[in-house]
From TrEMBL:
Organism: Microbacterium enclense
Record's subcellular location: Cell membrane
Major facilitator superfamily (MFS) profile domain: residues covered: 24-438
Membrane topology: Multi-pass membrane protein
One Pfam family it belongs to: MFS_1
GO cellular component terms given for this protein: plasma membrane
A GO term, aspect molecular function: transmembrane transporter activity
Cross-referenced SUPFAM superfamilies: MFS general substrate transporter (SSF103473)
Keyword terms of this UniProt record: Cell membrane, Membrane, Transmembrane, Transmembrane helix, Transport
Protein name: Sugar phosphate permease
Length: 460
């Protein structure tokens, strides 16, 4: 069937039906929310209970570091997920990858919910816990690229950043849902009951959410850009090889852009603030339910500013939106711990909310920015691998680094300077890129897309 006869397809690489676009947006939001709910649920539980339940023999201090290290462990396997998903996505389509990653993530999360603790099965408990976290990492590494390309490649040219923000909303929504469920269980089963069984309920809920996400994603059509590539038989045989042969520097710079956002975001999504603020032996010792409530509220503000960041990205360009975001994020970084250290739940909430302004502006336009950086034939590999490497350089061990810095220096100011440094690194990487807002995404413009967006280079 020719492209002109394909229902809803236009040669520009978008689908014409408004209803189809809305379905794509809805499916990407639902799917990524479920994925990140699972991913962040682990990180929050690592800050609250996993140290005691799975790593206790290591001693109170080191057990918590091991729990945070298990959070970071998954990031080391994100590139594997990105490599596998990039190859499959560029060869067989975006949609099939989204279905596989959703099932993989949900199965791992549900199994964590029934996993015996160290007290029951000994060293096998932390080993199995980390293996399931590895599975989560592989799934997360493959999920993001497919979701953002489905959104951006279906979008009208003038609204790519806004459409691309839809899967980005899944991150704060996932955090909101994970923190909200844990907060609810902390109220229903406080104290020892939460430690005994309360934390498991949100993990078991994942099974139901996966069924919902699978049903919604199954209804979505394949990306029109991929369909055009498939009809022309122009799919790249070894997309990852082509990516690193021609665009290795671009992958690194794009990864650093995300690293600047991710390191700061993982103060909450990685469970560090939750642990720091609720630790009964620490300087604050706030109630678990109160802190989880504050994190849940900050997830709402993060969602709002991510959407605004996507909208602004279409108005003033991706690069300019990022620059504003980095400035706001730097302000949030320097305010965060002074507000948290007051011991006031209200000021802690304020610090988290202020931080989400910059996080939203440096996350909302990311999908459009990434999609416009890479040629159509290797785009899935490019965005997935850049994202996965950025996650390792940024959030993978941010909670562990923060914990180690506080223990070695005795002050949270060391963490502030670490986060500020990552923010500046993200700004520098952004300034190294040309703004390619509105770049045609279809295979007709592969030569134009292959021109390097890195300043000072004509081609990658």
């Amino acid at each position: 069937m020719s492209r002109s006869s394909s229902p809803g397809f236009t040669p520009t690489g978008t689908i014409s039906a408004t209803g189809d676009r809305r379905r794509v947006v809805f499916a990407t939001v639902v799917g990524t929310t479920v994925e990140w709910y699972d991913f962040f649920l682990y990180a929050s539980a690592a800050g609250l209970v996993f140290g005691q339940l799975f790593f206790a023999p290591a001693g109170p201090g080191f057990a918590q570091i091991l729990a945070f290290l298990s959070v970071g462990l998954s990031f080391l396997f994100r590139p594997l997920g990105a490599f596998l998903a990039g190859h499959l996505g560029d060869r067989y389509g975006r949609r099939v990858v989204l279905m596989l990653t959703l099932i993989l993530m949900g199965a791992a999360t549900t199994l964590i919910g029934v996993l015996p603790t160290y007290e029951v099965i000994g060293v096998a408990a932390p080993v199995l816990l980390m293996l399931l976290r590895v599975v989560q990492g592989i799934s997360a590494g493959g999920e993001w690229g497919g979701a953002v390309l489905m959104a951006v490649e279906h979008a009208p040219k003038a609204k790519r950043s806004l459409f691309g923000a839809s899967p980005q909303l899944g991150v704060p929504l996932g955090l909101l849902l994970a923190s909200g469920m844990l907060a609810l269980m902390a109220l229903i089963a406080p104290g020892d009951a939460f430690l005994a069984w309360g934390w498991r309920v949100p993990f078991l809920l994942s099974f139901v959410l996966i069924l919902v996400g699978y049903y919604v994603r199954k209804k979505v059509e394949e990306s029109p850009v991929f369909l055009e590539l498939a009809e022309r038989k122009e799919k790249t045989r070894m997309p990852i090889v082509q990516l690193f042969r021609k665009h290795a520097l671009l992958v690194l710079i794009a990864a650093l852009v995300f690293a600047g956002n991710n390191a700061v975001g993982y103060m909450t999504t990685g469970g560090y603030i939750q642990r720091y603020a609720t630790n009964p032996e620490g300087p604050i010792g706030l109630a678990t339910a109160d802190v989880l409530g504050a994190v849940t509220l900050s997830a709402v503000s993060w969602l709002v500013f991510t959407w605004i960041g996507g909208w602004v990205g279409d108005k003033i360009g991706r690069r300019n939106t990022y620059i504003i975001g980095w400035a706001a994020q730097l302000i949030g970084v320097f305010l965060l711990f002074p507000l948290v250290n007051t011991g006031s739940i209200g000021l802690l909430t304020l610090g988290l909310v202020v931080l989400t302004v910059g996080l939203g502006f440096t996350y909302g336009p990311q999908a459009a920015l990434y999609a416009e950086l890479f040629p159509a034939s290797i785009r899935f590999s490019g965005v997935s691998i850049s994202y996965a490497i950025g996650a390792i350089l940024g959030g993978a061990f941010a909670p562990t680094i923060a914990q180690a810095l506080v223990e070695s220096t005795g002050t949270t100011m060391s963490v502030t300077w670490y986060l500020a440094g990552m923010t500046v690194l993200g700004l520098i990487a952004t300034l190294l890129l040309r703004d390619r807002s509105g770049m045609p995404l279809g295979p007709d413009h592969e030569a134009e897309q292959a021109v390097s967006p890195v300043r000072g280079l004509s081609r990658a």
